[in-house]
Amino acid sequence: MVFADRLAQAVQRVGNPVMVGLDPRWENLPDSLRRDGDSPAEKAQAFQIFSCEVIDAVKDLVGIVKPQMAFFEQLGPSGFAALAEVTAYARRQGLLVVLDGKRNDIGSTGAAYADAYLGEQASGIPADALTVSPYLGDDSLTPFIEVADQRDAGVFVLVKTSNPGGKLLQDLVSDSLTIYQRMADLVNAASAVRIGECGYGSVGAVVGATYPQQLAELRQRMPQSWLLVPGFGAQGGTADSVAAAFDAKGLGAVVNNSRGIIFAYQRSEYAHFAGSKWQNAVEAATKQMIEQLRTETSVSQL
Amino acid sequence: MVFADRLAQAVQRVGNPVMVGLDPRWENLPDSLRRDGDSPAEKAQAFQIFSCEVIDAVKDLVGIVKPQMAFFEQLGPSGFAALAEVTAYARRQGLLVVLDGKRNDIGSTGAAYADAYLGEQASGIPADALTVSPYLGDDSLTPFIEVADQRDAGVFVLVKTSNPGGKLLQDLVSDSLTIYQRMADLVNAASAVRIGECGYGSVGAVVGATYPQQLAELRQRMPQSWLLVPGFGAQGGTADSVAAAFDAKGLGAVVNNSRGIIFAYQRSEYAHFAGSKWQNAVEAATKQMIEQLRTETSVSQL
Question: Are strands A64-67 and A154-160 parallel, antiparallel or unpaired?
Answer without folding.
Answer: unpaired
